[in-house]
Design goal:
This protein is α+β, with helices and mostly antiparallel strands and 198 residues long. The protein has 6 helices and 4 strands, in the order ααβααβαβαβ. A 4-stranded antiparallel beta sheet has the order 1-2-4-3, sandwiched between helices. The radius of gyration is 20 Å and the shape is globular.
Amino acid sequence: MKKLLIIMALMFLMGAGAVEAQNSVIDNIMTRTSIRKFKPQAVEDAKIETMLRAAMAAPTAVNKQPWHFVVVTDKKVLDELAGKGRGGDMLRNAPLTIVVCGNLEKALDGDAEEFWVQDASAATENLLLAAHSLGLGAVWTGLYPIIERAGHVNSVLGMPEYIMPLCTVIIGYPDEQPTPKNKWNPENVSYNKFGNRK
């Protein structure tokens, strides 16, 4: 009987831990905000690798994994990247940016080629959530499909034409604490057919 009670208590605790873990994931999603001001503190290599591992755990069409990530910590390169487009001041003042790219040689063929954008976008969201969970702040700044922006980044980083930069994720220790926005809006949800409300 005593063993049974111990087993039941352990099962209860394991179940409670699973609920807590699930809630911590939801909490991480709901509390993430875009951070645009950073402390000068460098981001540790172990945290960079964790974020990249999280990014590469994203779903990908036909498991093509058509992504490539360029990690930039060199201040001169960050300044060059900041030369054009949005995010210039953030890039100049951040210790790190990860440029999320599509490798067009790994992309699907024909009409499905542009699925690399979805794959790289899923990887980017994983990267943002991982950064938040590690106590870092991050912001996504778009490049593709604005060819001038993407071309500038491609040129600065010396990338071949088959590598297309989708976005920069500017990362660092946050120097601001914006309040998360409540974006829930039931009007943006239909059930079974467009326009049907619950």
